[in-house]
From TrEMBL:
InterPro entries the UniProt entry points to: Plipid/glycerol_acylTrfase
Matches recorded under Pfam families: Acyltransferase
Biological process annotations from GO: phosphatidic acid biosynthetic process
Protein name: 1-acyl-sn-glycerol-3-phosphate acyltransferase
Record GO terms (molecular function): 1-acylglycerol-3-phosphate O-acyltransferase activity
Keywords annotated in UniProt: Acyltransferase, Transferase
Amino acid sequence: MHSPEVLLDDNDAVYDYYLRHQQNRWKALAAYAVLARRFRPRVSFAEGAKRQLTALVKSGRPVIFAINHLSTSDPYTVAATAWRSPLRAKIGRVRVLAKDELFLDPEQRRKVDMMGGIPVFRGKDHGIRAVNAAGQRMMDVCAQRLANGDHLAVFPEGTCNHVDPATVQAVGSGIGHIAFRAAKLGAPPALVALAMSYGPRPDPAIAPTAEEVVSAAFYFRAPVLELPQRPADIARLAKDELQHAVDGAVAHY
């Protein structure tokens, strides 16, 4: 299938492509294993969460993973964490929302595609009105991928947190709309909050160095199996769950 350029003006073709795109699972497994050796994340779980997450993954039910966002290294450290957690069994079947600029350079795009990326055209980059139709299509594609048996990883803060790494920033309603639309398709997803801590940040505006993201603390909350019916309520729940996960990651650093 032809791979279109990831451009806002051609978003219909872009999302037609990513509705069907499937990365090579064996390459993904190998890449995640390499990242796990490189970043060596320390993974902890809320009480009972590891057992519950293992059962959830085995059940085949779609899951939305809400993850905090601290640096441009996050997709790689999260991938390393997936290898060292019950998510290893689903590597190759997890879609990851990623800003469109990551798809512009061919080599960078190859890596993002291999990790299951779905492009997001952000209002902060293109203007709220300009991205409205593309955003609606993106949420429909995510919901359909969940209905088709994939999982979805979302950084619901939308951008790196350069304010306070211990406090979750504003969460938009997009995660709620995706869950709501998946439920309408007969595939109500579960929600799992996963948070990272790279340690205390004297100045949160300065990104962590390559050395500082090694051996980060990651913390899984227990799955939420029953979500509210309204998108805004789902988004509020996601923020609350993610804050609890951040608290856990900070405590386990």
